[in-house]
Every structure is written in structure tokens, then in C-alpha cells.
Design brief:
The structure is a homodimer of 323-residue chains. By secondary structure, chain A is α/β, with parallel strands linked by helices. Chain A is built from twelve helices and ten strands.
Amino acid sequence: MRMDDQYAEQIPVFADILLAKSRINGQIRATPVLSDPQFNEKLGCEIWLKCENLQRTGAFKFRGASNALAVLAENGVDGDVATHSSGNHGAALALAAAVQKRRSWIVMPNNSVKTKVEAVRRNGGEIIFCQPTQQDREQGLEKLLDKGCIPIPPYEHVDIISGQGTAVVELAEQCPDLDVVLTPVGGGGLICGSAIAARALISDVTVIGAEPEGAADTALSLEQGKRVDHFDVDTIADGLRAIVGGMNFQIIQQTVDRVITVSDARIIEAMALVWQYFRMLIEPSSATVIAAIMASPGDFSGRRVGAIISGGNVDLECLPFNQ
Amino acid sequence: MRMDDQYAEQIPVFADILLAKSRINGQIRATPVLSDPQFNEKLGCEIWLKCENLQRTGAFKFRGASNALAVLAENGVDGDVATHSSGNHGAALALAAAVQKRRSWIVMPNNSVKTKVEAVRRNGGEIIFCQPTQQDREQGLEKLLDKGCIPIPPYEHVDIISGQGTAVVELAEQCPDLDVVLTPVGGGGLICGSAIAARALISDVTVIGAEPEGAADTALSLEQGKRVDHFDVDTIADGLRAIVGGMNFQIIQQTVDRVITVSDARIIEAMALVWQYFRMLIEPSSATVIAAIMASPGDFSGRRVGAIISGGNVDLECLPFNQ
């Protein structure tokens, strides 16, 4: 579906996701899908975790970044790349750039999770810290662009969304006949790519987003029928603090059935549950999907749910739950 | 190969492993195999992690316990089951018993990892704590057997070894043409099953064990050509503190090429590396395999190595490394 609006030239379609998949297949990890009968029984539905926490750089973001840089290379565009990121997109871009022997510059909020800061550094990214506001992040990036860096946006771009959508292409192969595809909602890159892929591949699928109450700008925007561009953000889910992108919001309006909001307490409970049943540490942003099932069981009861576990980059020394 | 000795009736052959696989396939999780180019580059070989840390109950032990209880059920044997275990076999037995609506009793050393104690409880096992010596573990179990419980030994049993061997059957399918199969060595259940499966399925394979220096009874036994039955154990690898089983040692002598010993410092370094590159927390016992590659790179250089990551049951509040 091409949409007739200001973003018409840029909105991804399913073919873009398939192209992305062919570009990045050798570079990304085809992540496993895990399920557990006891966990299913506890939550009242059949849950398949698509483990992007086990993706290279510990998050799905490596898919989008790899695709965006593959497109640059295809087009013969040389030069340093830059972005702003709370961490996962930054680490992903740093590694995708390093693979191509490019330099990368990442503007990061000074309250970023330490694990994510170190991942950016380990992958060869140069970090510029900023205040943790959307405005400061964007200003930091502007300065880099003035110096000639190529911007690789974290979520509002056809190549990024298409790359993120490849996770659902894999998921639909690994786990046929899903009733529901469920992803976190932050800037909207993951849910948009997922929704486009899911609608193309899975008949009668329901696409649901999970958003922290403390960063529920997308749920509020859907309610108001119009994107809000400010929200007083307060959530443990550090990866979901961004405001949904303008194009992303349009795609969400047209392809996503529902966004469920969840409390931080529920997110922490969900992190603990996944640790107990799967021995995986997932980051709070990822845990929103499990929290959504707990918060709104009627949407999932007895159904076959593919849930994207978006990342696993947590700070080990300050886990928010006791085992 | 049936061996002509005191254990001749009990020693597993490859057919036992295939039978085990057909019995437990619906109950165990086919665990993923992960690889990472940066990690490979750092360690100088091509490593495929068989992620039994993502097995149900967080360890490969669920394979052997499931097989042993399936055999009981096939033979119409009712009744409570019992074992001694530092934790992973206990949690595995508890869950395998719960699936069959049996009660289970687990003798555990009073210094067991908290995560493992809680896993046994969550899976419905009854715990009897004992002093952390082999003698006390065995005495605790004797008392349970006197009460009529059926013993399910942790490693020295044909059904247990056969169950553990199923991980390598999967691995050989998931990742063909391995040069080396590498597993931790504790009581010997995993390495024996792995070696029997590997020798049957992979031509010219080298089978290597990894053992902590502070529990190197198997390496010492191989050196002396005779099983030592005492070792002053001192290692962080809580899952490998048992003395190798008598039958297990015989199988190891005949099927394993080498056992490499590793220091606790190296084990901790390996845990941190796996966290950095894979965002998986693996227990110290599992990290011995990566530590062995670091300690003895010449055995692995340029080769294609399948490494069994045996478990992921760590105490989050006392991780031995900084990220």
C-alpha cells in the first residue's frame, strides 16, 4: 500500500522489506523463536518469542541499520554516518558502519543505559552525549550533519522500517498461522515494519502494539486521531522514550489494530517472568509485550501470539527485579 | 560400541540416543545454535554455541531427566522419584516428574545457587538440604531410597546419558561438518552422550572436554589412567563439582580426545565475553568451553567448533563479572 500523503514517496511497502531481507541476510542473525508450555499456561495463550534480544548488537535495530547502510553502499554514497539514539540504534549503526569500514557518530542522552554506551564504543562508534530530551538529541545531530555526516534516522525512514520488518518475515516462516503479532512501540520503526510484513504474510492477523504508560504518546495520538508531538516521558523502558515518527504514526493508523499501554510495575514483572521461564534477560522495552498480555488478557486468550522481544541490553548491576 | 566390562549392560550406544530423542522430542525445546563473526574473530575459530542455557529449566539436564522418566512410564513404574543435585538436574527432574504428575525429592548442597533452588521449588520438587560433600549428598539420597523413592541418578545412567546425547544430534543437524565438539565435564553425563552421538554422526570429529582446574578430577583420572574418587574441589563452576562417574569415565577414556582444564579467572572472562557478544548470561560451568578455547587456542584455530552451552542458571545478584 502506497499512501497518498506527504510521505508517499517514502512509505515502505512489503516489497521493500523483501529487498531489505535479501540485502542483510548474510549480516544479521536469523534469531530463534522460543516457546514454553508453562509460560503459555500462566499467560493463557500460545506465545512465540521472536528473540531479537539475541540479534547481533542485542537488538532488532541491527536489521534496519544494516539495510540503510547497504542501500548507501549500493548507491555509492561514501562518508561518515550519524544518528541520535538511546543506545540500540546507535550500537547497531556503529557495527553496521564498522562492517563497511565507515566511521559513525552517535548522539546519546547522558542517562543512557551503560551497557548500551559500551556497546556503541565496542562497535567503534564515536559518542556525543546530550541532555535526555528530544530537542537536545536533534540539535546534537544537526551539528554532525553540518560537518557533513550522513544522517541515519532511528525510525522514520523507509530503509530503517523495511529492515526492521524482516524480523516478522522470519517469524512468519518459523511459526506459521499466527493470530496476533505483538511488538513494542517507541519511535515506531519496529511496529511499522512488522505490521506491513504481517499484513502481507499472515491472513486475518491482528497487529497489536505495547507502549509504556509513561511514554504513551502513540496511544494518545491514536485516541486523538492526530500525532501529539510532546509527551512528559517517565518510564523504565529506556528504548521507548522517543515520540512516534510522523510517517510512522500514519502507517500505524492504517495497519495496527490496537496499542495497549502498560505500567512500569507490569513491565518489571514481565522481565522477571521471562527470566524465570526462559533464562533470558530482556530489556524493559521488550518486556512491554509480555506486560501487554498480562494487562489485557482478553485480547490474546487462546490465541497464537508472535511477540517480538526487541532487545536484551540491560545493565546487569541495576536489574529492576529480584529473581 | 558395547564395552566388555562391569558396566557392559548399561553403557549407552547411539541407538539409545536416537530412542531417547524420539521419546523426548515433544517435551524438550530444540535449542537454537548461535554464532557471531566478531566473537569468532576474537577467538580465532568458527564457534557455534548450542544454547542449552535456553533449554526448559535452563539447562541440558532436562533432556536426560525427561528420557529417564519416559522410560519409567514405558515400563509402568509408578512412584516418587529422587536424586541429589547441585541444582540443574534437580530442577530438570522436578519438572519432568511434574509433567507426569509424580512427586520428586531433591537432595541439594546447602551452598547451591539460589536461582537453582528456586527453580526446583517452582517446578514442584521437594528439597532436602545437605552439606556440600559428595558423601552427604549420597547419604541424603540413601534415606529417600529407604522410603521407597526411585533413584534418578544425575549422570551415571544409560537413560540419562542417552538423553543428554540428544543435544548433539540436534547440533549435528543444525550445523553440519563440525570439526570439534566441545562440552563441559562434571559428572560426565553430557560429555558421554555428546561423544557417542558425535562419533556416530560426524566424520573425523574431535571431542574435547572442558573442566575447571578446581574440579579437574577427570583430567587427573585420564592422566593416571584410572578414575580418582576424591578431589579437593574449589571452583566457581558449581555445576561441575561432582566427581566423574565410573561408567562415565570409561566412556570418556574411549571416546573423548582431550580434556582441557581452565582457571576460574578464565571462566569469568568467558562469561563476560558471551554476555558482550550474545547478550546471554551463561553459568560458569557453561563458560568453561569458551575458556578452553581461550586457554588452548591451538586445539581450535581455524576449526569449526560446536560448543555446548550447558546452562544459564546464575544468581543475578552475584554475577562474577562487570559488564
